[in-house]
UniProtKB/TrEMBL annotation:
<dbReference type="GO" id="GO:0000151">
    <property type="term" value="C:ubiquitin ligase complex"/>
</dbReference>
<feature type="region of interest" description="Disordered">
    <location>
        <begin position="1"/>
        <end position="26"/>
    </location>
</feature>
<dbReference type="GO" id="GO:0031624">
    <property type="term" value="F:ubiquitin conjugating enzyme binding"/>
</dbReference>
<dbReference type="InterPro" id="IPR042460">
    <property type="entry name" value="DCN1-like_PONY"/>
</dbReference>
<dbReference type="InterPro" id="IPR005176">
    <property type="entry name" value="PONY_dom"/>
</dbReference>
<dbReference type="GO" id="GO:0045116">
    <property type="term" value="P:protein neddylation"/>
</dbReference>
<feature type="compositionally biased region" description="Polar residues">
    <location>
        <begin position="7"/>
        <end position="26"/>
    </location>
</feature>
<dbReference type="Pfam" id="PF03556">
    <property type="entry name" value="Cullin_binding"/>
</dbReference>
<dbReference type="GO" id="GO:0032182">
    <property type="term" value="F:ubiquitin-like protein binding"/>
</dbReference>
<comment type="function">
    <text>Neddylation of cullins play an essential role in the regulation of SCF-type complexes activity.</text>
</comment>
<dbReference type="InterPro" id="IPR014764">
    <property type="entry name" value="DCN-prot"/>
</dbReference>
<dbReference type="GO" id="GO:0097602">
    <property type="term" value="F:cullin family protein binding"/>
</dbReference>
<protein>
    <recommendedName>
        <fullName>Defective in cullin neddylation protein</fullName>
    </recommendedName>
</protein>
<feature type="domain" description="DCUN1">
    <location>
        <begin position="36"/>
        <end position="227"/>
    </location>
</feature>
């Protein structure tokens, strides 16, 4: 049976006071709108979350990508993880989801899809990109206390993250990594060093490359390999 719509005597009146200032009314309306937005963000999260873990897992991310009509290997999905500050590869927690979607002002799949181009522009700003590039490496550390990533995965990650900016450097470095036998894994210093290398070193003549400077040894070896290849 539905409750009576009549108000009991003495119950506080929910109608805004006539003495409320415009600022008070605005704050109240803004607070209600924020609450509603958060409710929609949460509802969207649970529509993709795994029922037992209460997290969005790889299957949920694939479903989200399908609904956004974006391939799950698209670099913008990694950018989305960066925006959420997601800690575990292939998983989004509710807190991470809220952080990312509130920042993107997206509470529906359609809004999230429309936010991706702007997110891409945001990531590609130089100060943001360094952070994103560093994050991409950390995000791929899937085991506890893991500090390095295997060569095959690094080659895929380089192509995904740096391929559009430094196509030639990435292609040759990937070729080098796949043919050399000295390195089985890449650590964070080597990863970050290659990004600095792409930004600072004249390619492919290496005219300003000084092996006496503090470059990771793998880059000295890469330059030697390239010069031998050219000659």
């Amino acid at each position: 049976m539905r409750r009576s719509a009549s108000r009991k005597t003495g119950q506080p009146n929910s109608t805004p006071s006539l003495n409320s200032s415009p600022a008070d009314l605005f704050r109240s309306a803004s607070s209600k709108a924020t609450t509603k937005e958060l409710e929609r963000i949460d509802a969207l999260y649970y529509s993709y979350a795994n029922g037992s873990s209460a997290m969005i897992d790889p299957e949920g991310i694939e479903a989200l990508c399908s609904d956004m009509e974006v391939d799950h290997t698209d670099v913008r999905i990694l950018m989305l993880a960066w925006k959420m500050k997601a800690e575990k590869q292939g998983y989004f927690s509710l807190e991470e989801w809220r952080r990312g979607l509130k920042a993107l002002r997206a509470d529906t799949v359609n809004k999230l899809k429309k936010a991706l181009p702007e997110l891409e522009k945001e990531v590609k700003r130089p100060t943001n990109f360094v952070d994103f590039y560093s994050y991409a490496f950390r995000y791929c550390l899937t085991e506890e206390k893991q500090k390095s990533i295997d060569i095959e995965s690094i080659c895929e990650l380089l192509d995904l993250v740096l391929g559009s900016q430094f196509r030639e450097q990435v292609d040759f470095f990937v070729e080098y990594l796949k043919t050399q036998n000295d390195y089985k894994v890449i650590n964070n210093d080597q990863w970050m060093g290659f990004y600095r290398f792409c930004n600072e070193i004249s390619f492919p003549d290496f005219s300003n490359y000084d092996p006496e400077l503090a470059w990771p040894l793998i880059l000295d070896n890469f330059v030697e390999w390239m010069l031998a290849k050219q000659s």
